[in-house]
Design goal:
heterodimer, A: alpha/beta, Rossmann fold, 2 domains, seven-stranded mixed β-sheet, 12 strands, about 20% strand, B: alpha/beta, six-stranded parallel β-sheet, two-stranded antiparallel sheet, 10 helices, globular
Chain lengths: ~325, ~325
């Protein structure tokens, strides 16, 4: 998946000489997790700007480039550090076009990875997508596979709006077919990762694969799951969620972010509003527990896993 | 830099009065309930906007704070569109979405006023970086108060601007207070300009109530930025109109401070300079009258202008 993101950015940087990358360790080092491999060598230090460690100003500089008509892509090394960039992102980028009455465009993408389950502890393992989803004016994109990552990155760059593009460290090495064409994937359209009749499993990013595995095991028990990969959280494909729930009558939402006020709550309420009469069982959420994330063996208790998904699905069938 | 001829100084005088009258109308309109929220007058600080503005080219970009009406005037924003914006009208410069704290006119390279203290400093850094990458010869000037110089964004931006030798001029309007907190309680160095020492850029202190002094200091900084030598921090010492904003209450540590600006009012002071250069009283009075009338017309325009259509409430969020 890292290669797919790299490819999308490279394609657009060749097309548009004004795109600039900002961040720390993005020069010859190639990005914290190697997503920018070869870009410094191809585009040079002016456009691939390795900078000091200051997420707030780096993101603010990105806003400044963007309103000057130079699309900026800022790498934040860990999703957890979005907190440091949050004013530039949430109070500036997300609102500036609006409060200036449409006079500026803000082609700014903040890329950042979730680094869960690596044993890095409470400040390097979080999934903060729900925080970003709560800010009107931001696009939130969160792909689960190389093809989507490429197509959605192309979409984000071509659309030119403030975007948080959330990747997943565990998925960087994931392999998958990527189309040769440089076609963008429209935002706000979920992907049906597996069709099924009995339960809708709505998920994204690092939990798509565990959901598919759970669906495989449940199929052996005669339970047919539909797995939805939401792909973009803002805009959220509420129609797609409701259409699936109307078919299956059951919904389980799965994510690595913590449970309370998480994406699951929004997805569940969307189903309540749009498919209430079709629901045959209470909606369930499988999410990280509401506590700081520990290191070592304790982390396995906090994060959702295949077993927890299986339990929730079986409960919803009874 | 030679002092500009009297004809130019008289334009400055007109602009100072234009700002003063605009702010008086803003306060009065707010108190009459013509708009809600608040407004942050720059009364007493007109010399900075005018002097600095005169040192910049029209192609240079300016970013300022919520106390930024004066800078908008100095960028020749349309007064009607400015006052209409304060009154949240559709013909406002930001279509009535921004209000008093968010004025912007991209066509005049006024890239807006910002309501989060110091947040616009890195944004100005990014604008300056775009100039450097495009080699377009433009520079960026960013205005901020003394309060902003205690924010992390200020230090991070100084660091990056020096590191990358950006064509950027930092203009601090030190009016002595961050809402109620005097600089003595916030800035151990006393002078904001001394903070430049730690980042190896020139830091200069200037009398912010003298437009010519500001013009000279900002002009020198602009010239330095334009030839690629990097940023300068210019600290303009000034005095604030009595309160932080039109809705502020509460006491100062020293209540005598509340009316201090009247004793150091830059407008009568500049008038005496102009008289010494040969300007007639009648000429000065005519300029004041012109500024007043232009603002009365702007206010009438704004009052008569329609509010945005309810159906447009969600416009301008995404491109």
């Amino acid at each position: 998946m890292a290669e797919a993101i790299n490819h999308a950015i490279r394609v657009e940087m060749r097309q548009n000489p004004e795109i600039v990358l900002l961040g720390q360790d993005i020069g010859p080092y190639g990005g914290t997790f190697g997503v920018y491999k070869g870009l410094f060598e191809e585009f040079g230090e002016d456009r691939v700007r390795d900078g000091p460690l200051c997420e707030a100003a780096t993101t603010g500089f990105g806003v400044g480039l963007a309103i000057s008509g130079m699309p900026a892509i800022v790498e934040i090394e860990f999703c957890d550090f979005l907190t440091l960039a949050s004013d530039a992102l949430c109070n500036q980028a997300a609102k500036m076009r609006f409060f200036f009455g449409g006079q500026v465009k803000i082609p700014l993408i903040v890329r950042t990875p979730i680094a869960s389950r690596l044993g890095l502890g409470a400040q390097h393992s979080q999934s903060l997508e729900a925080w970003m989803m709560h800010v009107p004016g931001l696009r939130v994109i969160i792909p689960s596979n190389p093809a989507d990552a490429k197509g959605l990155m192309l979409s984000a760059i071509r659309e030119g709006n403030p975007t948080v593009f959330i990747e997943h460290v565990r998925l960087y090495s994931s392999r998958g077919e990527v189309p040769d064409s440089d076609d963008a994937i429209p935002l706000g359209k979920l992907r049906v990762a597996r069709s099924g009749q009995d339960i809708t499993l709505a998920t994204y990013s690092g939990m798509v694969a565990p959901c598919l595995e759970a669906a495989r095991q449940l199929a052996e028990e005669g339970i047919d799951c539909e797995v939805l990969d939401l792909r973009t959280l803002a805009p959220l494909d509420r129609d797609g969620i409701c259409a699936s729930v109307r078919r299956t009558g059951r919904l389980v939402v799965v994510h690595e972010g913590v449970r309370t006020a998480g994406v699951g709550a929004e997805v569940a309420q969307s189903a309540v509003e749009g498919a209430f009469d079709y629901l045959q069982a209470p909606i369930r959420r499988v999410a990280s527990s509401d506590q700081p994330i520990p290191t070592g063996t304790l982390q396995d208790i906090v994060f959702p896993n295949v077993q927890k998904i299986l339990t929730a699905c079986r409960e919803t069938m009874t | 830099m030679n002092t500009p001829p009297l004809s130019v100084l008289l334009e400055w005088y007109l602009q100072m009065w234009t700002i003063r009258c605009f702010e008086e109308n803003a306060i009065d309109s707010f108190r009459k309930g013509l708009f809600s929220g608040s407004t942050h007058p720059s009364i007493g600080q007109e010399a900075i906007a005018v002097g600095a503005g005169a040192a910049l080219d029209s192609a240079d970009q300016v970013l300022a704070t919520y106390r930024g009406h004066g800078h908008a005037v100095a960028r020749n924003l349309d007064l009607n569109a400015m006052m209409a914006e304060l009154l949240c009208k559709d013909s406002g410069c930001c279509r009535g979405r921004g209000g008093s704290m968010h004025l912007c006119d991209v066509g005049r390279n006024f890239l807006g006023t910002n309501a989060v203290v110091a947040a616009h400093l890195p944004i100005a850094g990014g604008v300056a970086l775009s100039n450097k990458l495009r080699r377009n010869g433009k520079i960026t000037a960013v205005f901020f108060g003394d309060g902003a110089t205690c924010e992390g964004a200020f230090f991070e931006t100084l660091n990056m601007a020096v590191l990358w030798k950006l064509p950027l001029v930092f203009v601090c309007e030190n009016n002595g207070y961050a809402i109620s907190v005097p600089t003595a309680k916030a800035i151990p160095e006393g002078d904001v300009a001394r903070r430049a020492l730690g980042f190896s850029l020139p830091g200069v202190v200037v009398d912010g109530n003298d437009p010519t002094a500001v013009w000279q200091a900002v002009g020198t900084a602009a010239e330095r930025a334009r030839r690629g030598a990097g940023p300068t921090l210019v600290e303009c010492k000034t005095t604030r109109w009595e309160r932080h904003s039109a809705i502020s209450s509460g006491k100062y540590d020293n209540e005598e401070e509340a009316t201090k600006w009247k004793r150091v009012d830059p407008i009568p002071r500049f008038a005496s300079v102009l008289r010494a250069l040969g300007a007639a009283d009648a000429e000065l009075e005519a300029l004041r009258e012109r500024a007043y009338r232009a603002n009365q017309e702007a206010l009438a325009f704004a009052k008569a202008a329609p509010f945005p259509a309810a159906s447009s409430v969600g416009d301008f969020v995404f491109a």
